[in-house]
Automatic annotation (TrEMBL):
The lineage of its organism: Bacteria, Bacillati, Bacillota, Bacilli, Bacillales. This is Pectinesterase. InterPro entries: Pectin_lyas_fold (IPR012334), Pectin_lyase_fold/virulence (IPR011050).
Length: 174
């Protein structure tokens, strides 16, 4: 009886391993490239249309929107293709990118004038924030404050109540 239980556990472990491998291969095979604004006029519309594993290439220009990446959109890449590619909050939108999915990459954007944060993630894992620049207009000083923020430089704020639950934000303004 004990050897039957061991055989079942080994079988389940093998099935789980194969299923994870199939999922990785499926993501690679099914991935496509979505172009903004050629295929969709906004980054948000491209994210809505994207599937896991897709790459969204955003052409140069100014995009006045907040972008939310829901948990169902894991493994997507959102890449600025050319310079400048600006995500502009116009001093009235809260957060530039809100990441709720794991394994998301955001690369090469100039993110400016959002009220709360340039990029925010909550309970997400494996995400990459690469070469983004953040600006915030300071009306009182009539100047533009500039700082390059990178996760590797610990320029993002990290909060954690437990190893399973954490939150981080880049370029946070209060």
């Amino acid at each position: 009886m004990e050897s039957l239980e061991i055989a079942v556990k080994n079988y389940n472990a093998t099935v789980n391993f194969v299923m994870r491998a199939v999922k990785r291969v499926t993501l690679r095979v099914r991935s496509s490239v979505i172009h903004v604004p050629r295929d969709f006029p906004t980054i948000s519309a491209a994210v809505t249309a994207a599937s896991a594993g897709d790459t969204i290439l955003v052409q140069r220009g100014v995009y006045r929107e907040s972008v939310t990446i829901p948990s169902s959109k894991s493994h997507i890449r959102i890449i600025a293709n050319g310079t400048p590619v600006i995500l502009d909050g116009g001093n009235n939108l809260g957060t530039g990118f809100t990441m709720m999915a794991d394994h998301v990459e955001i690369q090469g954007f100039t993110i400016r004038d959002f009220k709360r944060a340039g990029i925010r993630g909550a309970s997400v894992f494996g995400s990459r924030i690469i070469r983004n620049r953040f600006f915030r207009y300071l009306a009182k000083q009539n100047s533009r404050e500039s700082q390059e923020w990178r996760v590797a430089d610990k320029a993002c704020a990290w909060q954690s109540d437990s190893p399973q639950q954490f939150e981080w934000q880049c370029a946070v303004w209060y």
